[in-house]
């Protein structure tokens, strides 16, 4: 059997998969290790944390730590990977419960990662921001 896309630790899909596993485990140090020092991480316009964040610390403090303040159990469930060289598109699902409204969130999402030399250099999120807003609105 040949190598699959997750067998080589530096392969783009393997790096992205490690990022999802670290995020789901709440291991922000391991997540930061998957990110390039000059990473550009873009949360979609209309999303509560919309904007582009740079540096591994900037990403985790402005995105993951902020999500944890507003949502219980925020998880990105990755299920389908489409890999083209350094580009990895992941179809996934966000699940969580908003801490203030108590409303659940269950929404499909697409993530586009660019991976070079074993690190994520760029990320862009695509999500139905209206569903996220609805879950966060009383």
Describe what this molecule looks like in 3D.
By secondary structure, the chain is of the alpha+beta class. The protein contains four helices and six strands. Strand 1 and strand 2 form a beta hairpin. The N and C termini lie far apart (53 Å).
Q: Could you say which overall geometry the principal axes of the C-alpha atoms support?
A: globular
Write out the strand line-up for the largest beta sheet, numbering strands in chain order: 2-1-6-5-4-3
- The total of helices stands at 4
Largest sheet: 6 strands, mixed
Proportion of residues in helical segments: 25-40%
The mean pLDDT is 94
User: How large is the share of residues in beta strands?
Assistant: 35-45%
* Straight-line N-to-C gap: 53 Å
- Spatial extent as radius of gyration: 15 Å
Key attributes of the depicted protein:
single chain; 138 residues; alpha+beta
């Amino acid at each position: 059997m040949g190598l699959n896309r997750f067998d080589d630790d530096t392969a783009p899909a393997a790096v992205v998969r490690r990022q999802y596993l670290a995020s789901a485990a709440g291991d922000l140090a391991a997540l930061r290790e998957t990110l390039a020092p000059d990473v550009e991480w873009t949360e979609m316009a209309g999303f509560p944390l919309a904007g582009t964040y740079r540096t591994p610390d900037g990403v985790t403090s402005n995105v993951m730590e902020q999500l944890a303040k507003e949502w219980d159990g925020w998880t990105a469930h990755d299920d389908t990977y489409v890999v083209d060289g350094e580009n990895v598109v992941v179809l996934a699902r966000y699940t969580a419960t908003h801490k203030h409204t108590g409303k659940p969130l269950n929404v499909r999402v697409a993530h586009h990662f660019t991976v070079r030399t074993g690190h994520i250099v760029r990320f862009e999120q695509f999500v139905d921001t209206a569903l996220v807003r609805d879950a966060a609105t009383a």
